[in-house]
Amino acid sequence: MIIKGKRNRYLRSQAATMKPLIQVGREGISENLLNQLELLINKNELIKVSLLQNTMVEPSDLIEALSEFDEQIVHVQTIGSKMVFYKKAPKIKYRKYSIELENI
Fold first, then answer.
1. Distances (CA, A) of 18 to 11, 13, 70, 85, 96
2. pLDDT tens-digit profile, the chain (104 residues)
3. Cα(31)–Cα(29) distance, rounded to whole angstroms?
4. d(C-alpha 83, C-alpha 3), whole Å
């Protein structure tokens, strides 16, 4: 799934003031990291991930790993070592951004 235009711009604007919820460090991309990302994205819909300086992971590696782990997770933006991901929440009570995206 690819988000384009005004929808992508909306998600980027919402993520601008967010703090990273997950930091990828020396451990790199592990099954535990992917499970934690999935739990957070299912509750928040929009998350920011930061790559620490001591990691050997490139942003493209994390994007590829997440797309293989769950095809519904969408990469929204990468700036330096920070990345933003979006996924529509499976439970209606957690949907905040997806409701706004439907109105755009």
1. 11, 10, 23, 12, 15
2. 778 889 999 999 999 999 999 999 988 899 999 999 999 999 999 999 999 999 999 999 999 999 999 999 999 999 999 999 999 999 999 999 998 888 88
3. 7
4. 15
What separation in angstroms does the CA of 25 have from each of 15, 55, 87? 21, 5, 23
- Tokens representing 79 are 């700036």
Question: How many alpha carbons lie under 13 Å from residue 97 in its C-beta half-sphere?
Answer: 24
Report domain extents, the chain.
Answer: 5-92
Nearest in space to 48 (alpha carbons), one of 73, 28, 20:
20
- The CATH number, out of the four listed (3.30.110.60, 3.90.209.20, 3.30.750.24, 2.60.40.10), of the domain defined by the range 5-92: 3.30.110.60
